[in-house]
Structures are given as structure tokens and as C-alpha cells.
Design goal:
338 residues, elongated, two-stranded antiparallel ribbon, single chain, Dna Ligase, domain 1
């Protein structure tokens, strides 16, 4: 008698296991089509409430939700959902979504500040960033948010160059101000590192001047191999009390730049115009990255005082004005020397 009862019990257990396996497979394969690639899981949401929501939408059947209640007794960790915005796969199933929501692996978004762009352009990138709370609407607000090191002198009217050009990752509902603060902290760290590694006898008085120099380098060349050479030209000119005469500083101070520098622009007395004023401009003219900071801190040892664009992103470097004028005639004016 006991033997028969044991056999019956064993058959029942096997049947339950088989049925449970079939049910789990059914749940594993039950597709859930979401309208958007991101799903915002609200606080207080539960596996049962989600199942009911998708049931109402016609995505699931009542039997699916019944099986899910049984399954959660066996796998209770799937009932511990974490709020947040999740990136969902196109082939999502009921259980795969619950596993995702229980993992807490919320979606990561990214924002890149570009080397050579202005802080106004950085603000536009902030305002266009997806799933980011916008709490900054002007560069003035940005400047008020950022700290200003005491050894940099008086703050300028705008926070140019104070954001480190890099890619920043964030989760949904992060604020623009949080990213701005992170970008400034990154800049301060990178600037300090470059300053500590700088060559001796550079014609730069403090970290802020190093940042200004890096911004000039950033605007003049996007080629990594050239940045240290560009830096050497600026250092040589400063050491010989020559004006830097770099076009991007002229452009930066213009309010009505039409795409081409005129002779009137070169004579414009705005404070950033290095054709009119000796030394560095009063502040950076763009965002900078690590390579420009390194080039500003460690310029090449060269005899160059001039450079001119070839028109393909690279430059011709010259020691004498005569050599420079010949390069200008060839690459800017399109003339060949006899």
C-alpha cells in the first residue's frame, strides 16, 4: 500500500514539475510589444500590476498572469522591481522584462561636449539631450553655477572653456546642472594635471593662462600631431613679444561675423583680437580637450613663428616671414612663386 502511495505521489510530483516547466517556457516565450524603446518604471510598480496593464492592452492573457503569480512564488526576486527608465529590447518577453526591471540596470544616456566649440554651443547640446531635466537656460546661469578659482583673477562675463570636452553618461531625469558641474570638475582635474606636468619657463603665469593657450591651440588645429607645434609657435611669439595674430581670437570677439575675416575685422579693437593686442586674450575662446591641454603644457621645441593652413586641415610651419608669405601665396592666394 505504501509503495503504491509513493508511486502515485512520485507521478504527481513529476506531473507538477512538467506542468511548471511548460508554464515557465510559456512565460519565457510570451512576447510583450512596447510602443517606445524606453520604459519608465514608476515607483510602486509591481510585477502583478504590470501584468494587469499588459493584460488590459491585449498583450497577455489572464492565464499568463495566473502563471506569473505561481512563478513569482518560486522566483520571488523577480517581484522586487526597481524604478527607473530602462532600454527595452525589440524582442522583449514577459519574463525578460521583469528580469531587466529587477536588475536595476537602467538606461544610460550620453552627452558629448566637443573640442573647439563655444560654451553657447555646449548649452545647445545640453538643451537637446534626451531624458535630461533642463534647469539651465542661459550661459549666465551656467556661470553662476560654476566655481571660480581664486588664483584665476576676476571672473569673465561668460564661462568659456570651463567645461571639459568629453563624453558624459547619465541616467534619465538627471539635471543639466549636474552634467555642467561634472564637466567643470573634470576640467579642473585635467587642467591641474597639465599644469603640474608643464615644461619649465613657459610664458604662462597660472593655470587659467594655460587654459587660454589650450583653447587657441584647439581652434587652430584639430590634428593631434600638429597641436604641440602650434603651441610652440605661440610660445615663441610670446617669448619674443610678438602678437599672436591668430584668426580665431578675431572671430570670437565679433558679434556679426559673416564667415570671412575682413581687414576691418583685423582692426577691430575688441579685447580678444590678438592682431591688436599683445599677449594672450583675456579668456579662453572654446572648450578644450586633454590633447590641447597637454600641448599647451608641453609644446614642441621649434624655431617656428608662423603657420598657415593648407586647406585640408593641416598646416605649413615657417621660421621666417619670407617663408610664411610664400606659403600664404601658395595655399591661400593660390599663386606659385617663380
Amino acid at each position: 500500500m505504501l509503495k503504491k502511495m509513493f508511486v502515485v505521489l512520485l507521478i504527481a510530483v513529476v506531473a507538477v514539475v512538467v506542468l511548471l516547466s511548460v508554464a515557465i517556457k510559456q512565460l519565457e516565450q510570451r512576447p510583450v510589444q512596447l510602443a517606445q524603446p524606453y520604459f519608465n518604471l514608476q515607483a510602486g510598480s509591481s510585477a502583478r500590476s504590470l501584468c494587469q496593464q499588459w493584460l488590459v492592452q491585449g498583450q497577455l492573457k489572464a492565464y499568463d498572469c495566473y502563471l506569473l503569480r505561481l512563478y513569482l512564488k518560486w522566483q520571488p526576486e523577480l517581484a522586487q522591481l526597481r524604478q527607473g527608465t530602462y532600454r527595452t529590447p525589440a524582442d522583449a518577453t514577459l519574463l525578460s522584462l521583469l528580469r531587466l526591471f529587477a536588475s536595476g540596470e537602467v538606461a544610460q544616456f550620453s552627452l558629448t561636449f566637443i573640442e573647439g566649440e563655444t560654451v553657447q554651443q555646449a548649452l545647445l547640446r545640453l538643451q537637446a539631450a534626451e531624458h535630461l531635466q533642463q534647469d539651465i537656460s542661459s550661459t549666465r546661469q551656467m556661470l553662476a553655477l560654476l566655481s571660480w578659482p581664486a588664483d584665476w583673477g576676476a571672473p569673465p562675463q561668460h564661462p568659456e572653456g570651463l567645461l571639459f570636452a568629453d563624453t558624459y553618461f547619465y541616467t534619465a531625469n538627471s539635471t543639466a546642472s549636474e552634467l555642467v558641474e561634472r564637466a567643470q570638475q573634470a576640467m579642473l582635474r585635467q587642467l591641474e594635471l597639465a599644469w603640474q606636468q608643464r615644461q619649465g619657463a613657459l610664458p604662462l603665469q597660472n593655470r587659467y593662462q594655460l587654459l587660454i593657450m589650450a583653447s587657441l591651440i584647439e581652434k587652430e588645429s584639430g590634428l593631434l600631431a600638429e597641436k604641440s607645434l602650434v603651441s610652440s609657435v605661440f610660445v615663441n611669439r610670446l617669448n619674443h613679444n610678438m602678437r599672436l595674430q591668430t584668426d580665431p581670437t578675431v572671430i570670437y570677439g565679433l558679434t556679426n561675423y559673416a564667415g570671412r575675416i575682413t581687414y576691418a575685422d583685423l582692426r577691430n579693437p575688441h579685447p580678444y583680437n590678438t592682431y591688436r593686442h599683445h599677449g594672450l586674450p583675456p579668456g579662453p575662446i572654446s572648450l578644450v580637450g586633454a590633447s590641447a591641454l597637454q600641448a599647451a603644457a608641453q609644446p614642441d621645441n621649434s624655431d617656428y613663428f608662423y603657420f598657415v593652413s593648407r586647406g585640408d586641415g593641416s598646416h605649413v610651419f615657417s621660421v621666417t616671414l619670407e617663408q610664411h608669405n610664400a606659403a600664404v601665396r601658395k595655399y591661400i592666394l593660390g599663386k606659385k612663386d617663380d
